[in-house]
Design a protein that fits this description.
single chain, 339 residues, alpha/beta, 7-stranded mixed sheet, 4-stranded antiparallel sheet, 13 strands, 34% helix
């Protein structure tokens, strides 16, 4: 399977394969979804006007810079369809969705190195040339969980702007990071920067689908919007989004929880002799015995086998940071299956 969350073909008690919030869905969002049932008999607002106003204030961007999508994946697809890049550069390993969206483009890859903890380094700048039309970057990256330093992001954006390269920066996991490394504010400065984000993971609503694209160029925004279906955001997504933007305290609580539980899980994995790679998001990339997936699925625990990520091989896995009780249970079972 290309993505995590294959609960439909496996008997699963604990799912560590999907990177959703360990705190679950906020009660206010559940209530909003429940109440939206009474609106399901009418078409949703094609402009998402109420959500647009609230999201603008929440993210600190102008309303006209916002594009709403049916999850971040639709955002990637609509960006490529609208801008029609011939050659796309992306890092490896990274999220498969960029490859999928760029299926009809020429693709080139910059391979992250294990000796660098799979972090992006300054030599990435050498991969940027006039033949590249679009760059996909994930910050923090999936599945490595590592972030790009702000100074390097600026260097990349400067070079991309000078060469006329669009930079698609996926910040779907930035809400989980303790330090604020979002580049949303830079969209005012860089016309070819397109930020893509999602409420799917942070608010645990993967079944609702709510993504956001941000860009400051009027023509670019118009082009991306024109590549989307007219009613791509349901009343459920719009009402859930309205509740989500009021949950700033929930985000702060999530960041503290993820920091503490990530440290706990990382230290526990190291004690078991499992190699971990440094990161900041709500998941950890590990390297261990090649058949760990099979050993754990027998215990009805699902993890993400990363062997189908470009740049990785058998023995690499991604573990979501879950609740303390769930993380304890995972470590206990790992100690048993690795004997």
């Amino acid at each position: 399977m290309i993505h995590g969350g294959d609960i439909y073909n496996n008997k699963v008690i604990l799912d560590f394969s999907v990177n959703v919030n360990p705190l679950g869905m906020p009660e206010s969002v559940k209530t909003a979804l429940f109440n939206a049932v009474s609106e399901a008999h009418v078409y949703p607002d094609i402009e998402s006007a109420e959500l647009r106003k609230e999201m603008s204030a929440f993210l600190g961007v102008k309303e006209e810079a916002l594009i709403f999508t049916n999850g971040a994946s639709e955002g990637f697809m609509s960006i490529v369809h609208a801008l029609k890049p011939k050659k796309v550069l992306m890092t490896a390993p990274s999220f498969y969705g960029y490859e999928y969206a760029s299926n009809e483009c020429e693709k080139t890859y910059y391979y992250l190195k294990e000796e660098d903890d799979f972090r992006l380094t300054a030599d990435f700048l050498d991969a940027l040339d006039e033949d590249v039309d679009m760059v996909f970057l994930c910050n923090p990256n999936n599945p490595t969980s590592s972030s790009v330093e702000g100074s390097l992001v600026k260097e990349i954006l400067d070079k991309c702007e000078s060469l006329g390269i669009y930079t698609v920066l996926d910040e779907s996991f930035s809400f989980f990071c303790e330090r604020d490394n979002s580049c949303i504010g830079l969209t005012r400065e860089y016309k070819k920067l397109i930020i893509v984000s999602s409420f799917t993971k942070i608010f645990t609503i993967p079944g609702v689908r709510l993504g956001i694209c941000i860009n400051s160029d009027k023509e670019t925004v118009s082009g991306i919007k024109s590549s989307l279906p007219e009613w791509n955001l349901s009343v459920f997504a719009q009402r859930a989004g309205m509740a989500c933007v009021k949950e700033k305290e929930f985000i702060e609580k999530t960041r503290k929880t993820v920091k503490n539980e990530r440290t706990f899980l990382d230290e526990g994995l190291n004690k078991l002799g499992i190699q971990t790679f440094g990161g900041e998001a709500n998941f950890i990339l590990i390297k261990t015995v090649p058949d760990l997936y099979e050993r754990l699925i027998k215990r009805e625990i699902l993890i993400r086998d990363c062997s189908n990520f470009k740049g990785l091989d058998k023995g690499y896995f991604r573990l979501a940071v879950r609740s303390h009780k769930e993380n304890e249970e995972l470590l206990e079972i790992l100690s048993e299956v690795l004997k």
